[in-house]
Amino acid sequence: MPEAFVCNCDLTAGILISKLEEKGYRVPEDLSVIGFDNFAYPGYADTKVTTYKVDMKAMAKAALDKVIRQIRTPGRGRGLEIIPGCVRWKNSVKMK
Predict the structure, then answer these.
(1) Residues 66 and 77 sit within 8 Å (Cβ to Cβ)
(2) What digits encode the pLDDT tens for the residues 39-84?
(3) Which one of 62, 87, 90, 92 is CB 3.0 to 4.6 Å from 33, fit for a cystine?
């Protein structure tokens, strides 16, 4: 088993934690799991997943700005946008 898993979203991380626990693994004692988005999914219990929190409003605005630029001037609006975020430490990562 790896030492840690990095998941594409907190929902995936929560599901993974459940599956690992069904197999007898303990999170974070045996391995760590981190998610991405810091989004509370309706109907899914908060498993206190350590996550990388992104600014969803800033991400949506950047995407919309790109679409508008491409509509107004085809070929523009491409490139990389970096949206800042931060780690939210919770209970799914073992701190050494």
Answers:
(1) yes
(2) 877 766 666 899 999 898 999 999 999 889 889 998 776 788 899 9
(3) 92
Please, are residues 37 and 7 in contact by the beta-carbon 8 Å criterion? no
| Distance between CA atoms of residues 39 and 92, nearest Å | 15
The whole-angstrom separation of Cα 7 and Cα 92 is 12
CB 5 within 8 A of CB 34: yes
Q: Are 92 and 27 in contact (CB under 8 A)?
A: yes
Residues 50 and 7 sit within 8 Å (Cβ to Cβ):
no
Residue reference for tokens 């949206």: 83
